[in-house]
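TEACHING EXERCISE
Course module: macromolecular assemblies
Task: Read the component lines below, then compare them to the predicted structure of the full complex.
Student: A.B.
Group: 4
Components provided:
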Amino acid sequence: MEEYLDQFHRMKDIFLEFRVTKRTQVKVDKQRKEIRHQRALMRERVATSQWRRMRDDDRDEEDELRMDMIQGESHFNFIEMHLLSHFCDHRRQIGNIPIYSTEIGDLAHKTQIKEGCCQSNKNDAARQIVHSYGRQPAIRMRLLNLESLKTRSADLSPDVLTHLDRTTSWVLPPVICRRILKGRRGDVSNIVDFSQISAVSLEIKYRELIRYCRHNLPIDHVLPEDHATLRSLPIELLTQLEVPVLTFQGADVYDIHRGRSTGTLHFRNPGRRNDWVWVQAGTEEMYCALRGRLPAKLVDLWKIRDPRSEDTVCRVTGVKLLTPVNSGRLSDLHGLVTVQMREDT
Amino acid sequence: MNLGISQNIFHGLDRVSASDLYKPDILHTIYLGLFKPMMDWIEAFLKTHWRQQVFDEVWKALPPYPGFLVPNKAYREVMQWQGKVMRNLGRCILGFLAVALRHPGGAQAIPFKRALRCVRALFDFNMMAQY
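Instructor-supplied answer key:
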């Protein structure tokens, strides 16, 4: 953290010229006026060409003076600049900043005050409001503690156990951690229909599908490779891909991230929507900072079914990958990775 | 009843009101205290280098993502800033700026580099301060 702050303070000068106060601006204007006045007094009439050259020189000089003035007058001395330096110590001493914030937040309008007020008996309410808000997290913490004691089979009195059973009788639904395709579109039944409404041509589809089958599918589930049979296979086109992503620091809790791909159709508001996803395109060592992952655009989502061999179903996603510039190394200019569109796919 | 503030060292000091002291606070110090002026500077910076248009376009073109509010107005059109919008901004501003400052012309390279470094350091600091 200190390092970041240090770098910020070293680099912030670049924005100094935009921190000009009105007073400085007035001074700058005054200075410029004086210079012009002096020049006008000094110089007699001169030829036009010469005059033009001199005017350019003057302007450069004026700019330089102005920058000097601004650099001298403006500053970054405001309280927040300084306050930042205490954040690191504070965090090390007491912990994460948001929970120790003592500012009155917008939460006060509802959870802290209104709900507390509703629960009070309106008699000397302030006291009760303060207590009710403190009590809520206290009870939650207590319950969690008891819960963990119970799982470690510690000695708890029977009434505590019955109470715990009552409060936590509901069971969490089993976690499904598979990617799911949703949002079926009715207007597509085979690959020819599909290529008509898609931006990708039929030939490319065949080629990529066959390539995918060869590399990724087990031998007994491989799709046929001739175009005529492929053409006859039923297809479902879908618009939504649900990807479960582990929550931050969570062991078995997943957030569902939805990637939509409406193809050429419009999504709700006028405009097509093809979301961006990360695709594992290689091993962890590839592409340096990207660690084998590349950003890609969802082009289409579909299922293809082969009724002849025990109902093989392939769930296929067409993506348009981006290529990392300089094979994923951090740019010297801004310390980020740059990517660019590929021309061929 | 344990209501009430216990005595602390600031109560005894002259001309000090304990409630007005600065506290570490993300919203008021970082979001409102620094991001806001920072955005003014960035905007002025972009204006001097004629990059405002690109910045606005990138701003509008962002796709939605869980936990991320899509800005539906160009940067210059937003009149009122909420804490949440500021937080969003903190996550993606660096990318915007990197795109807006692409392909610097000869003399621009050094100021662009410095500006990006500066913004990057501040927003990295913010990211660390949140956790």
